[in-house]
Write a structure and sequence with these properties.
single chain; 205 residues; alpha/beta; Glutaredoxin; 6-stranded mixed β-sheet; 8 helices; 13% strand
């Protein structure tokens, strides 16, 4: 992914957007751009070699995350040059963590995107039965997935800790939250907001 950023260029931005539904949090020092954009354990959708990175902190039980998901996906698809980085931040409870563990370990069967998409399309908060059903519908070998989840526990816990530390450093009040290029958005954007933020990020690239 061809995105570079200095620590001092991380900005909190919403002034360039026509709609700013959430208040802008102040910039926080000590956030390492390499950790935000270059963590090898963070899943990347869209174009991994894109010229702009959109980083999203999300939770599988977050209704606003699910509402914005198809909007963001369509913007990323239409643009074609955006890397979409998925930062699990399971703040809604144990089911959020279980869902995130399953999706992250699904990468070992090349089914991460399939399970992620299915869980983000679930209306409301998935319970264990619904998680099991979506795992089955995603074409995963369940026994292998369970084994991978167990073996991935330490690495996943460390990843979530890193994601959470970054979110707290940025001052995010909850999910979803975004870093787009060198701009930070602690809340929901519409399609036009994403497009403008991506365009602004390209100008600064």
């Amino acid at each position: 992914m061809s995105v570079s950023l200095s620590r001092r260029s991380l900005l909190v931005g919403a002034a360039s957007l026509s709609v700013a539904p959430f208040a802008v949090a102040p910039a926080r020092a000590g956030v390492d751009p390499a950790a935000v954009f270059g963590d090898p354990d963070v899943p990347v959708l869209g174009n991994p070699h894109g010229d702009v990175a959109v980083v999203v902190w999300f939770d599988y039980q977050c209704p606003f995350c699910k509402k914005v998901e198809p909007i963001l996906n369509e913007v990323v698809r239409k643009d074609g040059k955006v890397a979409l980085l998925l930062k699990d931040w399971p703040i809604f409870g144990e089911m959020s963590t279980q869902a995130a563990r399953a999706v992250w370990s699904a990468r070992r069967q090349n089914r991460l995107s399939a399970l992620h998409d299915r869980l983000m399309a679930v209306k409301g908060r998935p319970d264990q039965a619904r998680l099991d059903a979506e795992i089955a519908a995603s074409g995963l070998d369940r026994a292998r997935l369970d084994a991978d989840v167990a073996s991935d526990t330490a690495a996943f816990d460390a990843l979530v800790a890193r994601n959470g530390a970054q979110a707290e450093a940025f001052g995010f009040p909850g999910t979803p939250a975004f870093v787009i290029g060198s701009f930070v958005f602690p809340g929901v954007l519409d399609a036009g907001g994403f497009e403008q933020a991506i365009a602004d990020a390209r100008k600064k690239h």
